[in-house]
Amino acid sequence: MKEALLIIMETVNKTEIPQGSSFEIGFNRGFKSVRDVLKMGTHVKSNIISVINHVASGKYNKEIIDPLLSSPIVIVEPDLVLNTKANNLLEEFKTIDSLKLPFPKMTFFAGFKYFKEMDGNVDTMIPYFISESNEGVVVTIFGVSRISRAPGLFKLLIRLDKERGVFCTELEKPPFSLDELSISQAFATALVAIHKMTLSEGEFYISIPSSRSATKNKKRLVKGKVPLIDFKIAKITGKKTHTDPSSSHGTHASPRQHWRRGHWRTLSASGKKVWIAPMQVGDEANGKIIKTYAIGNYTLLESRT
Description:
The chain is α+β, with helices and mostly antiparallel strands and 305 residues long. The chain is 28% helix and 32% strand. The radius of gyration is 19 Å and the shape is globular.
């Protein structure tokens, strides 16, 4: 995967000496998956917000904090990126005419394995903040200078061109330069996750907070316990997500406000792909659902001891 991605990253300036790296969350032990980290009730979102607010003094609310609080989160397991055949993925992107996101804004939680001495598949997690623009997909990396410890935002623009295919350029960078690893990891994570959620068929896991679970977690927080996240299996068929995202528990009440995932649909007659745009539905007065998606080769992960 890495070699193919580096070829299409030639427009990213790699001549400067790296002076900073992306913001990382390290764990003191290894986990089987990022999903397992969140299932344990770890206050990931609140910890990220606390650290970023501390480092950045509330500077990046619009780009980082607001999406974390109000937009879907997508967990990207490391095996999904490592086991993806880059050439096949890049060829499939050529079958569409533009890059689209399943939701207007998202936060990706990408898992990595840095320390061989730790058990498990994940010991580090990096958040990436994703949004759509008229030119393509914007990936925002929160970085920190190794010299001054000052924060900054590094923005990549991933574009799709009929002749060149998918390629990546710098959109905005902080006063310091990021190392190549930070950039390539963000680029690979974004491409694989976008492909999985908009073009691919298969399975993923989804956490849809019910009103019952929200009440239960409020009680846990009052008692000083961490909230629980329950993931359920869902299937992507290219037509719809087979799960009930807004269950009203047998009543005729309007569903709680939530996003329906945008995706590419293949027309059976012509084979042409058409974009089904994301849509916000439901009544906010009845509550709001913010979903967490988890994508990875979980059948393989769960078979490992």
